[in-house]
């Protein structure tokens, strides 16, 4: 079945192995299925929900774009652009915010996590961020959205907004409630320092994550220092449920080698972590170093990256502004 794919990544610092395994690796395989049409967005409007430095933000937009390309996204096959170049996202987001309900937003766990204890001081943007995400998706009639597990609730909200709009305005097929594409395994890569928390850009310890632009030495060092437990590796998948670090490291190995977890478990059963970590480090370096080198090479030609985004935005704008015009007619503005 042909799919219309949309997904986004925030340009807020280095992309890491979680972003790669949970999202970008899938962006590439979806793109390489000729039945699909894919749009991948550097969501810079989302990034400003927390304070950004202007120079850093510009640099991060380019770096995220370079990471897309270095990971295998092809601007000739997919539309690649940054959100702020297409005004329809902000405009659509306003109209959808009049459809979304406070009660729905109040349930968003990511807001609670990100806002922390002092919600009063969080930006309003951070609170309504999932509505902007819904606009991103719905403006392109995306049927499928590849994301990691942490975005599941936001996608459910997008579906709720689509359904409520269609019902309220009696336009049953106008917005397409999108299907999440979340992998059964590896949709939540965990911190290297604590197998019970997600690998994240915002973790203060750089040792908790492998960044896509880490050098081979950094990768080897981080894997060497990764937290483990005292037992040898198990011979049965069921034993992993209370061994989060072992589960995470074996999962990373399985995903990056494109082999089933069971096969990896059989291969390393009974071995100690130091032996496994050596092979894991070799594999991660093999997979990530070429991406890292390519990111650095691409970043030397800023015009090349900027042109990809501008050309992508022109294509995106045609699709999204047409949907906005239709939306305006339905609402009664035109
Ligand atoms: P962001 O920028 O936080 O993350 C980008 C993608 O990476 C996935 N991800 C992970 N997957 C597995 N393990 C992890 N540790 C991990 N950390 C991050 C995320 O699930 C995501 O798929 N709101 C979104 C961006 C967005 C978007 C959209 C996505 C904006 N508009 C429309 C899809 C469709 C976000 O902040 O992702």
Rg computed from alpha carbons, rounded to a whole number of angstroms: 21 Å
Q: How are the strands of the biggest sheet laid out side by side?
A: 1-2-3
Q: List the domain count as a whole number.
A: 2
Report the strand count: 5
Task: Look at the structure and give the mean pLDDT.
Answer: 96
Write out the CATH superfamily name of the largest domain: HUPs
CATH architectural designation of the largest domain:
3-Layer(aba) Sandwich
The geometry reads as globular
Q: How does the major sheet shape up?
A: 3 strands, parallel
Q: What is the fold-level CATH name, i.e. the topology of the largest domain?
A: Rossmann fold
Low-confidence stretches: none
The end-to-end distance, rounded to whole angstroms, is 35 Å
**Class computed from helices, strands and strand pairing:** mainly alpha
Number of helices: 13
State the helicity in percent bands: 40-55%
Mind telling me the CATH class of the largest domain?
A: Alpha Beta
The topology string of helices and strands comes to EHEHHEHHHHEHEHHHHH
The percentage of residues in β strands lies in 5-15%
Bound molecules: tryptophanyl-5'AMP
How would you explain this protein's 3D organization?
This protein has 334 residues and is mainly alpha-helical. The protein folds into two domains: 3-187 and 301-331, HUPs (Rossmann fold), CATH 3.40.50; 206-297, Tyrosyl-Transfer RNA Synthetase, CATH 1.10.240. It has 13 helices and five strands. It has helices spanning 17-31, 44-47, 54-71, 88-97, 102-106, 109-115, 124-138, 152-168, 216-225, 244-256, 261-268, 273-299, 302-331, and strands at 4-9, 37-42, 79-82, 144-146, 179-181. It has a three-stranded parallel beta sheet. The chain has a two-stranded parallel sheet with strand order 4-5. Helix 4 crosses helix 7 (124-138). The two termini are 35 Å apart. The mean pLDDT is 96. The chain binds tryptophanyl-5'AMP. The site of tryptophanyl-5'AMP has 26 residues, from strand 1, helix 1 and helix 7.
